[in-house]
Design a protein that fits this description.
The chain is mainly alpha-helical. 67% of the residues lie in helices and 0% in strands. The chain starts with 11 loop residues before the first helix and ends with a helix.
Length: 58
């Protein structure tokens, strides 16, 4: 059962938004963006870890 009343039309966008290609495309875009900004992200992570350890939280 789809939960829709008999004769109700499905939204054409529902199939597109639930297509498995959408999350895969989002992950690929995120991976490319992370690879492009790898040096900045590396320093941000190192700086965050250094700040965390120097703050006495460890």
């Amino acid at each position: 059962m789809s939960g829709l009343p008999p004769g109700a039309a499905r939204s054409p966008w529902r199939g597109r938004l639930t297509d498995p290609a959408v999350p895969v495309l989002a992950l690929v875009c995120g991976t490319v963006a992370a690879a492009w900004y790898a040096p900045v992200l590396t320093w941000a992570i190192i700086g965050g870890l250094a700040g965390y350890s120097l703050s006495g939280s460890v």
